[in-house]
Amino acid sequence: TASICHVQENVLQRVLQLPVVSSTCETLQRKYSSTKESHPLMASVCEVYERGVQGAGALAMWGMEPVVRRLEPQCESAVAVANNLACRGLDHLEEKIPALQYPVDK
Predict the structure, then answer these.
(1) Domain ranges (residues) in the chain
(2) Widest CA span of the chain, in angstroms?
(3) Which end of the chain is more exposed for a tag (fewer CB within 10 A), N or C?
């Protein structure tokens, strides 16, 4: 049965907890790790990419912080409404597509 989103529940957390999504993420993580371990050149390329993504993410957060601080009061209610709508959509999907409750291999 589908669960209703609670105020503190985040739709992204719910999606990541779906068995089909979590098992896919685990499989991708294992494949990524095994590829890095078995191919030294690929490992160095992946490490450079990972550092670049972390740096870009930190820079984006630093640049957005003042904007977010100013918009926070107005955005909070908009985010809550969007999260609520997304959770209701997810409830509907979980109800209509039972396969979301099974790992990828099933």
Answers:
(1) 67-99
(2) 49
(3) N
Query: Please, is 49 exposed, middle or buried when counting C-beta atoms within 10 Å of its C-beta (0-12, 13-18, 19+)?
Result: exposed
Please give the Cα distance from 26 to 99 (Å, whole number). 17
pLDDT at 72 over 70: no
The two three-digit tokens of residue 51, written as one number: 């550092």
CB distance 5 to 93 below 8 Å: no
Mean pLDDT (the chain, rounded): 78
Here the tokens at position 2 are 């589908």
Q: What residues contact 50, with CB distance under 8 A and at least 6 apart?
A: none
* DSSP helix/strand/coil, 85: helix
pLDDT at 88 over 60: yes
What is d(CA 93, CA 63) in angstroms, rounded to the nearest whole number? 36
